[in-house]
Specification:
By secondary structure, the chain is α/β, with parallel strands linked by helices. The chain is built from eleven helices and 15 strands. The strands form two sheets. The chain has an eight-stranded mixed β-sheet with strand order 2-3-1-4-8-7-5-6. A seven-stranded mixed β-sheet has the order 11-10-9-12-13-15-14, covered by helices on one side. Bound molecules: S-adenosylmethionine.
């Protein structure tokens, strides 16, 4: 029996600054005994909950199922102990795999070296038995293994998501500086938008916030387009349970009224990209997208405005982002009556230029950038 089978404990990797809502999300899918840790959350779940979390979560990056844990003071011991695992429980020599590793406060102090030793053990295991070996594929392997060594204790896990869940599969076209899907989902979550009233993104770019808003409003599972999950590689994979979870979820998808979600952008390329991406998730064109300079918008009344204005990239003749944010603040004040705005600042130095009193500010990083989500009530 592997550890996850004995304990029903898993680890959900999530960005540190959204762990509060990621934990709530896990609990809403039936997870129990959650406990926050560095870069993620430990939780207990049964098989149904594990599959459901992987299919529906829009905030977590992946769920790891621990297979074995052992004392690991040296790379020889790592190699020897890894050779004792029945790797054919998860992998066939004709398949591909990848190992990602992290090490903290241990004799093995290079994660690349640690992952190499585990890869060697897996390859040698098959080669010794069958004369054939599985290949390594670090982009889209059939199976992802995780190795974590902390204080000389190693844990080998299988990634039950099968690659990061932020890759939803709808981003067919991109632009410069698109937002990470899990961050966009977190922003929708923090806004408290109800999924029914109108939502407007006047800097929609490739449409990430629009797509995440639509998925939330329609109750579309975040990973509906994912072709395979890592849990399908577990020895106790229950295919009929998985089919049932998928069917039940698809039945619960509900229509979203045209005009609920609207976006615009000054760049024709961005508009093209967001139309293409939104078409992947909804065929009825209920998400309305226009090519428009934000300053040409007449008014946005009584809406939830959620957006990610440009930061640090050229925006036109003047390139003066300070003035740009001041004008945008005036636009919000004068033309967005009775709306609530949630502005994501990729660079927080522009918050002061907006000239509006924030209701709250929340630190949220975007690919290493120290951004802020700021709420403004507009009267
Ligand atoms: C940081 S990007 C938004 C990224 C978007 N959230 C995504 O995930 O793809 C900022 C966007 O603002 C647009 N933009 C810049 N100036 C604008 C203006 N005056 N009016 C409307 N859109 C503008 C850019 O074309 C760009 O697509």
């Amino acid at each position: 029996m592997y550890n996850y089978q004995k304990t029903n404990r898993y680890f959900a990797q999530a960005a540190d600054d959204i762990k509060d809502i990621a934990e709530e999300e896990l609990l809403s899918f039936g997870a129990q005994k959650t406990s926050q840790a560095y870069r993620g959350i430990y939780f207990s779940a049964n098989t149904k909950e594990l599959y459901t979390i992987n299919f529906h979560s829009c905030l977590i990056n992946r769920v790891l199922a621990p297979l074995i844990s052992f004392d690991c003071p040296s790379d020889e011991l790592l190699y020897k102990r890894a050779l004792q695992v029945n790797w054919e429980d998860f992998l066939h020599p004709s398949k591909t795999f990848a190992v990602f590793a992290s090490v903290t406060n241990s004799s093995i102090n290079h994660s690349k070296f640690a992952s190499l030793r585990l890869k060697d053990a897996i390859v040698d295991y098959f080669r010794n038995r069958t004369g054939k070996r599985p290949s390594i594929d670090t982009r889209e392997p059939d199976v992802w293994f995780n190795l974590h060594i902390e204080n000389n204790e190693a844990t080998i896990s299988l990634d039950t998501s099968g690659g990061s869940l932020h890759r939803r599969g709808y981003r067919k076209q991109s632009i410069q500086a698109p937002m990470v899907e899990t961050l966009a989902a977190a922003i929708i979550n923090y806004s408290g938008w109800d999924g029914k009233s109108s939502l407007y993104d006047p800097f929609c770019g490739s449409g990430t916030l629009l797509c995440e808003a639509y998925m939330f409003a329609s109750k579309t599972p975040a990973s509906i387009f994912r072709k395979k999950f890592g849990f399908e590689r577990l020895p106790d994979f229950n295919i009929s349970l998985w089919k049932k979870i998928k069917e039940d979820a698809v039945e619960k998808i509900k229509p979203v009224k045209k005009g609920t979600i609207t976006g615009s952008d000054i760049s024709p390329d961005a508009v093209k990209a967001s139309i293409t991406n939104c078409k992947v998730i909804e065929k009825d064109n209920v998400i309305e997208i226009e090519n428009k300079d934000v300053f040409d918008i007449d008014k946005i009344d009584g809406s939830t405005i959620i957006c990610n204005p440009p930061y640090g990239i050229r925006i036109g003749k003047t390139d003066n982002l300070g003035d740009f944010y001041k004008r945008f603040g005036d636009f919000l004040k004068q033309r967005c009556k009775n709306s609530t705005a949630f502005i994501y600042f990729g660079d927080r130095k522009f918050i002061k230029n907006i000239g509006l009193k924030p209701s709250w500010k929340k630190p949220l990083s975007n690919g290493g950038l120290d951004g802020r989500l700021v709420k403004y009530e507009l009267y």
